[in-house]
Amino acid sequence: MRPSASRRLLSRPAVLAMSLAGVLSAWLAPSASFAQAKAQQSSSGIYTCTSPDGRKLTSDRPIPECQQREQRLLNSDGSVRKMVPPSMSPEEQAAADQRRRAEELQRAIQQDAIRRDRNLVQRFPDESAHKRARESALDDIRQAMEQSEKRLKELAAERKPMLDEAEFYKGKRLPVKLQHQLETNEAAADAQQQSIENQKAEIVRVNKLYDEDLARLRRLWAGAAPGTLERPQPPASGR
Asked: What would the pLDDT profile of 9-26 be if each residue is shown by its tens digit?
């Protein structure tokens, strides 16, 4: 069969040139697509602003923290493309800030509850550990109370001879030294009695705290996830 007229017209160099052009076209196509995608990405720009608390923020989209502030839209080379005006009224921004603060507070409360529950379970892995800790805390208070009661008895013993001596001055003015001794003894006895009352109140307080912890621990030991129980009250000072 004789070659067609069009095939006879193509020389060997022309065929090679056409093949090379096809290879170059195929090789350049991905690069062109990448460059186009890069250009589209760069065209979106970078938003930047300074938040109300002084932080410098950047994003590829408008920044929520700066809705009431002017934002700069930058080109990929860092030059300013345009200034973006605030998008919220002062009233709207105040409401948004209040919501944000409430959400942050709630997150902090939740994280604190999780941390407290985990620490509680780590400190008291079982009920016997909790009981030992309670008794140890109460023993310290009981020992202090015993010391106060012992001192109170000593003061009563010291006061007896003073009262016996005061009997000689019935209807008369007591000597200054004896009067001072009696007043000092009485003040010391009052202080020890007040200390005993405080220690009794402390025993009640400590038992109440341990009772509350035990009720919470029993639920955690049973499988409740930390932070899922009702919000705990802040621990009292001195615990």
From this structure: 445 555 445 555 554 454
pLDDT digits (tens, 9 = 90+) for 22-79: 544 544 444 444 344 344 444 578 999 998 888 999 999 998 888 878 899 999 888 9
Dihedral of alpha carbons 223, 225, 226, 229, sign: negative
Number of neighbours of residue 116 by Cβ within 10 angstroms: 18
Whether residue 206 contacts residue 238, with contact meaning beta carbons closer than 8 Å, is answered with no
Find, among 146, 178, 175, the residue nearest to 159 by Cα: 178
Q: What does pTM read for this prediction?
A: 0.54
Burial category of 237 from C-beta neighbours within 10 Å (exposed 0-12, middle 13-18, buried 19 and up): exposed
H, E, C per residue of the chain: CCCCHHHHHCCHHHHHHHHHHHHHHHHHHHHHHHHHHHHHHHHHCEEEEECCCCCEEEECCCCHHHCCCCEEEECCCCCEEEEECCCCCHHHHHHHHHHHHHHHHHHHHHHHHHHHHHHHHHHCCCHHHHHHHHHHHHHHHHHHHHHHHHHHHHHHHHHHHHHHHHHHHCCCCCCHHHHHHHHHHHHHHHHHHHHHHHHHHHHHHHHHHHHHHHHHHHHHHCCCCCCCCCCCCCCCCCC
